[in-house]
Amino acid sequence: MTFTSVPAGQITTIVTSLEMTSKPPLRPMPATELQLKRWEAPALDTYRALYRRVGEPWLWFSRLIMADAELAAIIHDAKVKIWAVTDLRGIEVGILELDFREDRQCEISFFGLIPELNGKGHGRWLMAMALQLGWAEKNAEGEGVERMWVHTCTLDGPGALGFYRKSGFVPYQRQIETFADPRLSGHLPMDAAPQIPLIA
Prior knowledge:
The chain is an alpha+beta fold. The protein has four helices and seven strands, in the order ββααβββαβαβ. The protein has helices spanning 44-55, 68-75, 122-136, 160-166, and strands spanning 10-20, 35-39, 80-86, 92-99, 105-113, 147-153, 170-180.
């Protein structure tokens, strides 16, 4: 067994990619008071605000460092579909983003709820909706999706990998990712994700 040093100011995480290559059998829809609200070509500031609200505890930062034109090219693409998860008051408390830009493929790009909702069963409902929406998509020729996939990393909640496997996804790849700590660059506040040590 060997150890590899990570330079100060950097973070390393293990990324696991998982896939589902056939539509799962129908299951009862988990109960929830949450709803999905489709966002078509959302304003960049609105999108980033929700992305940050959901992802800051896990150091989500990729969409925060993108130039406006680069981000708009993704989230305004007709083949990228985004939903805000809202509560009964209409307050946005989660995000679901499905990427169909690769033909007959669906990537669950972003999937999450604010920390206050974790562990209450709402994630099972959101995944049921993601699978329903993903497998229902058709391309211009009327052909359906052949594969859905998602990735998670060791910075995510400790139950994330098990949750995806329980949902029917099968791991197929593991990678190591190293990046500059977004707290040190100012893209996230210094007190974000306190469970992840900040080594300047």
